[in-house]
Amino acid sequence: MPTKNDVRLAPAVRTLARRGKSLKAAAGVASAALIVAATTANTGASPPAARPFDLAGSCTPEAMQAAVANLSTKVTVRQIANGPRFAGGTRLVAATDKLPAFCQVTGSFVTNPATGKTANFLATFPANWNGKYLQMGCSGHCGQFAVSDPAQPQATITNQGLPYDTIARGYASFATDEGHEGFSGGTWAIKGPGQVDEEAIADLFYRADKVLAGMGKEFTAAFYGRASGAPQKIARSYFNGCSGGGRDAFVAASYFPEAFDGIIGGSAYNGIGAAFQFAGIPSGQLRSAGAVVPPSLIALIDPIVKAQCDGLDGVKDGLIQNPAACNFRPDRDLPKCTSGSPAGQCFTPEQIETVSLLLSAVTDERGNVVQPGFSVSEIQAASFLTPPRPADLSARDPFPGSDTGALNGGYWPLADAYLKVFVHKNDPNFFTRQLFTFRSGGPGPINAFHVIAPSSEVALVKREARMGIGHFPENFDPFIRQDRKFLMWHNLSDQVLTPYMSINFYKELAARHGGYGKLQRNVRLFSLPGTPHCSMGGVGPNSFDALTAMENWVEKGIAPDALPAKLYPANAMGFKQFDKPPTRTMPLCKFPTMAHYKGSGDVNDGANWSCPSGDTSMLRVGESGRQAGVVQ
User: Fold this and answer.
1) Which residues pair with 369 in a beta bridge?
2) How far is it, in rounded angstroms, from Cα 349 to Cα 351?
3) Kind plus residue range of the DSSP H or E element containing 202
4) 8 A C-beta contact, residue 493 and residue 531
């Protein structure tokens, strides 16, 4: 179980990114050449032949500024403080025997000409440009480029695939900090009591990515036009992101679908419900001093769940392919403490309630599901993290000053930023904690102990943060009418963003658009069993080539029914070690199909698995799924 690695991951990324260091060492990568060798072996293709571009002469601050002089968006090429630091804003990297030469550029671009508001960007131009444009999503509430620099191995967190793959394949890529600097959840948007920076919030929600989509393509054509001495056009454009970058992907599909031919969105952040869940679970652990569940007890849960649920897919192989089909209930199945119970081997009633808070849906006071609960698959200590407990458990603001940008204290800072800053405009009389109550029983179908959020607050979030939310099914209508393609994916053991957000959304889309068969012409969902948030480690297949699948769908009309996936081992920091052989292969099937073992042969060999046509096993919902609020 990858609990320790996943807890360490977020602060590790932030610390190394702040220092401006490559994450190669942290990821256990021997060399770029070794990784690209793995890339070539994985795709079966060599990097495209280089075009006659004068990359060296074009990759200087002066030449780059000249290239952007006539763009419709004002761009300034310069060094930035919150990304890779290049003198003057440019860096030329020489070719190796595995990677082409490439030029990276940083700077700022105007997102609102009326006010002069800007956001920072990072662009990467390989010498073997394939004529295509790729925009990469961010993470969390952005403010940095920790997972969106294709020249660093941690780009696989948002991009999937293998390190440096987009450069090797010739993609011109762009990313943005979404209009502010720093890892914090929302302190950057505070101007004073009752005052927030609406311009910066608009850039985070949607505007920076929308403007970048136009500017980035113009910039790409202008750069390669000057470098080649001939006009250039963008052949195809794609978007790829996970987590906060998954949110970016959903927002792009919802509000500016014309910008991309295909969009890949993984384990997406839905602000409507996630904010209430991120804040509700820590608040629930402040009910009393005895409500906290220590990691030693959390480690007892997974074997109990596996004993009940591992065989539901037809084979006991350590993976739960459809955790919603399980019938696990904490109040029934966890060992309860009695007078003779061994120390550290049982749960008190309050601790059982806390586990239930995690797995049960957040509802409003009428019982309507606001946010589905977490999956029972590989329950991790990271899901229970909170900032340091206050001395006064009844404090209205229990975690003041916790929004430091380090998420090793849980995701309360993101929730508090979303609710107090973005929605309530830093109202000094509003306190996030005061929103929540807790109960067992109805009304509604969720009767396990769960978080209650006021319906009035849910409506307020939908209204005030609408442009930053991509999970309104009706907003996908133009995307589908335009016949664009969206590849959704979610980790079924996601300890940060419950996979049932994506599953519920997909079911709602299917109901709206005539069923799964019709919806799959434009939108397909793939789930990854046994994998944590954005596939950072795990016990299930944690790496697949989403970009090739999207290219084949858009450019060749070959829709993905199954995605070949591999399980790479992770190092002590939780980073996948691509220089080591995968320990398992398996197909990821399009929802609602589930992969089936043929009944013989090594379960770790994907050749012994298939995605049967017409299978709907992922639609099965048991008691775990019902209490989590999975749509039936």
Assistant:
1) 363
2) 5
3) helix 198-202
4) yes
How far is the C-alpha of 448 from the C-alpha of 329, rounded, in Å?
8
Q: What's 261's DSSP letter?
A: S
Distance CA 212, CA 114 (A): 17
What pLDDT is attached to residue 51? 54
Structure token pair of residue 153: 């191995």
- Which residue is listed with tokens 């075009």? 51
Whether the bond between 294 and the residue before it is cis, its omega within 30 degrees of 0, is: no
Q: How many Å apart are CA 3 and CA 12, to the nearest integer?
A: 14
Distance separating alpha carbons of residues 583 and 541, to the nearest angstrom: 9
Contacts of 252 by beta carbon, 8 Å cutoff, 6+ apart: 209, 210, 213, 239, 259, 260, 263, 470
Q: Distances in Å between the alpha carbon of 388 and those of 180, 286, 348, 400, 411?
A: 27, 11, 22, 10, 12
Cβ pair 41, 568 in contact under 8 A = no
Q: What does the alpha-carbon distance between residue 585 and residue 567 come to, in Å, rounded to a whole number? A: 6
Query: Rounded to whole angstroms, how far apart are CA atoms 139 and 543?
Result: 18
Residue type, 122: L
CA distance 245 to 418: 16
Is the Cβ–Cβ distance between 267 and 499 less than 8 Å?
Answer: yes
Site of tokens 């943060």: 465
Strands 117-126 and 172-176: antiparallel
Please provide the distance, in angstroms rounded to a whole number, between the alpha carbons at the two ends of the chain.
29
Coil, strand or helix at 378: coil
Encoded tokens for 286:
């402040």
* Contact of 500 with 630, CB cutoff 8 Å: yes
Collapse the DSSP code of 468 into the 3-class scheme (helix H, G, I; strand E, B; otherwise coil) and give the result: helix
Tokens 């298939």 belong to 610
Q: Which residues contact 440 (CB under 8 A, 6 or more apart)?
A: 353, 447, 448, 449, 450
Strands 132-136 and 236-242: parallel
Tokens representing 120? 């920072």
- Which residues on adjacent β-strands are paired with residue 587? 564
Q: Could you identify the residue written with the tokens 């500016």?
A: 256
What's the average pLDDT block by block, 10 residues per block, for the chain (632 residues)?
37 39 36 33 38 86 97 98 97 96 98 98 97 97 97 92 96 98 96 98 98 98 96 97 98 98 97 95 94 96 98 96 98 95 93 98 98 97 93 94 88 97 98 97 96 98 98 98 98 98 98 98 98 95 97 98 96 86 98 97 98 98 98 96
> In three state form, how does the secondary structure of 596-620 look?
EECCCCCCCCHHHEECCCCCCHHHC
Q: How far is it, in rounded angstroms, from Cα 145 to Cα 17?
A: 8
- With H, G, I as helix, E, B as strand and everything else as coil, classify residue 196: strand
Number of H helices, E strands in the chain: 22, 21
